[in-house]
Amino acid sequence: MTKFFLQLVGLSLLAGLMLSQANAQDNQTESASDTTVYISDDLYTFIHAGPGRNYRILGSVVAGTAVTLLQRNDEEGFVEIIDDKERTGWVDNRFISDTPSVRESVPQLEQSLQQAQADLEQTQQQNDLLNQQILDLSSRNEQLQTRLQEIQQQHGELQQQLANIDNKIQIEWLTRGGIIALGGLILGVILMLIPRKRRRNDNWM
After folding, report:
1. What are the start-end ranges of the E strands in 49-185?
2. pTM score, whole prediction
3. Which CATH fold would you assign to the domain 28-100?
4. How far is CA 31 from each of CA 56, 70, 71, rounded to the nearest angstrom?
5. How does pLDDT run across 109-146, given as a tens digit for each residue?
């Protein structure tokens, strides 16, 4: 009977001790909103069943993994999280970061780099197209300049031909006028040299 009583007292004390530890843990645990935090880079950390290394290990969380922060236990230096495998547990607060890790940033940076490269290629293609259009316009301009010079040369030749024709016409008119004048002069001289016939004098005896 005494032994049973001692066992009962021992169980009661143990239950009271566990209850007091649970209350103390609840008092020491700081509630936190469900925010996203990250496991520090170049590390992996174990996830425990409670706020301390003495609790059972549930697994490990790879460095750079985004996890959901549930609450903090500042006295033990642990935080309760939900990891990417939907496991709820506690990890050392030293391995938690508020900023995205390199693991999270690298894919975004690679995507941004790919987009920038695609934009650069598109810009280069547009630049090549514009350069080709400029070359085509320059070639067309040279052709038009050459054609303009040919037309100007033809115009000059036609002007010279017209001037030559005018000079020729003037010379012809002068020549004809001279011939006519000379003919008139010769005709006048001939008329002066022809003797006039004497009139018959019917009154002579």
Report:
1. 57-62, 66-73, 78-82, 88-92, 96-97
2. 0.39
3. SH3 type barrels. (2.30.30)
4. 22, 7, 4
5. 678 888 888 898 888 889 998 999 998 998 999 999 99
